[in-house]
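Researcher: Sequence recovery benchmark, item below. Answer with residues only.
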């Protein structure tokens, strides 16, 4: 295999003491040539008896030396910074995606671990046992896109100073086990997309996570299709403002206890449980939603959902409920009496394909500001038996579906009444 080498052109300034004087004189010398690094590597190989093969790539990045061997091993050694956030550039070794299948990192005092293995789609295993993370403040996108990585063991890593874990394991579609139960997350502010796309992850113990400073949990578990349960024993979410798509596409999730969740600062819950098709019941009676603005698609495609407790929901500030219960086909009852909809402008597809709902009481609804009701009650082969209309309606209207509906006087209603000032009860009659 043809060897490719990089010359190291960085200069290193050192101070020496002039002979016979006490004056410090700066002298610039060239950093070690790549040939010197290669010679050191070969000497080390002979000493430890490894079969790494020849070095095919090597270089210096920030304050680290790195080499890639013929057997696919990436070895990074050094001290200090590993990522230049000002340049927003991945480490140099990430260029050689096709050549890296394993990695070993021995670095002391690294403050920034962002993008450390980002995009290494062939990476199968990592050894971080000698990586000093005690000074690390960010692990953003650390393993982003490592599709072949099966197991990550980081229980021994010191994460006490870490503030950013955004996208840390995002796109690790092959990841089955992440040993991170001992993580100190007391300083972390964002966990956005932390496990997003980890579709083979089936074990995840977060019972020791301290999340009291976390602000963003959006997309945190999105796409974790094999994850059947998550422990939130010590989760503190009192400072979280964004939970949109938090559990989106968690299609195996069947039993989750949300009693410890505090949602008083959350403004966005859009798609929070979207496509959680294995969930049969969700109890959110403890949720404080008084600041939530967006609930679009919140329970969309939860096709096996039978019980949903929203009895304490405060929706006074919500502006969109589009597709909120769309395709919740097994839901036969839902209590929306606490809902306030004075600010809602979009209710399109809100109850589309909810064909098991027998009674839908919208008498507390005010839809004066709603401008979009497209398919609000659409898509039914078998429609509801009883519908109580909103107490106040505006000019916007929508079809009531395929069946005929009559009021108490026997008048047929095919559309939601315009400019209504009181609720009326409609009964469904098969055509």
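Model:
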């Amino acid at each position: 295999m043809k060897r490719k080498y990089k010359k190291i052109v960085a200069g290193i300034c050192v101070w020496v003491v002039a002979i016979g004087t006490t004056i410090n004189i700066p002298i610039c010398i060239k950093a070690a040539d790549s040939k010197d690094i290669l010679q050191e590597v070969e000497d080390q190989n002979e000493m430890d008896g490894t079969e790494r093969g020849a070095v095919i790539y090597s270089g210096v990045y920030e304050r680290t030396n790195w080499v890639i061997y013929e057997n696919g091993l990436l070895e990074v050694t050094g001290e200090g910074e590993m990522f230049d956030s000002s340049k927003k550039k991945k480490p140099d070794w990430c260029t050689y995606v096709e050549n890296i299948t394993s990695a070993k990192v021995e670095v002391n005092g690294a403050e920034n671990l962002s993008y450390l293995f980002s995009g290494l789609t062939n990476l199968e295993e990592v050894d971080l046992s000698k990586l000093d993370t005690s000074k690390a403040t960010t692990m953003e996108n650390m393993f982003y896109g490592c599709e072949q990585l099966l197991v990550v063991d980081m229980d021994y890593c010191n994460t006490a100073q870490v503030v950013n874990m955004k996208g840390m394991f995002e796109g690790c579609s092959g990841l089955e086990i992440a040993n991170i139960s001992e993580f100190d997350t007391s300083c972390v502010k964002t966990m956005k997309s932390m496990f997003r796309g980890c579709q083979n992850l089936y074990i995840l113990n977060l019972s020791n996570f301290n999340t009291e400073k976390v602000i963003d949990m959006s997309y945190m578990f999105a796409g974790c299709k094999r994850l059947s349960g998550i422990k939130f024993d010590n989760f503190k979410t009192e400072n979280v403002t964004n939970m949109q798509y938090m559990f989106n596409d968690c299609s195996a999730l069947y039993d989750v206890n949300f009693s410890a969740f505090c949602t008083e600062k959350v403004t966005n819950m859009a798609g929070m449980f979207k496509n959680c098709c294995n969930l049969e019941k969700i109890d959110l009676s403890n949720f404080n939603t008084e600041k939530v603005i967006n609930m679009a698609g919140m329970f969309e495609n939860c096709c096996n959902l039978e019980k949903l407790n929203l009895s304490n929901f405060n929706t006074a500030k919500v502006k969109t409920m589009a597709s909120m219960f769309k395709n919740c086909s097994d839901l036969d009852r839902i209590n929306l009496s606490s809902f306030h909809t004075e600010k809602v402008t979009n209710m399109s597809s809100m109850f589309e394909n909810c064909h098991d709902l027998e009674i839908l009481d919208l008498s507390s609804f005010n839809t004066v500001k709603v401008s979009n009701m497209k398919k609000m009650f659409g898509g039914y082969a078998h429609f509801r038996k009883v519908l109580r209309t909103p107490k106040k309606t505006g000019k916007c209207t929508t079809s009531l579906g395929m069946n005929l509906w009559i009021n108490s006087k026997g008048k047929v209603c095919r559309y939601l009444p315009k400019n209504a000032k009181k609720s009326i009860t409609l009964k469904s009659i098969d055509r």
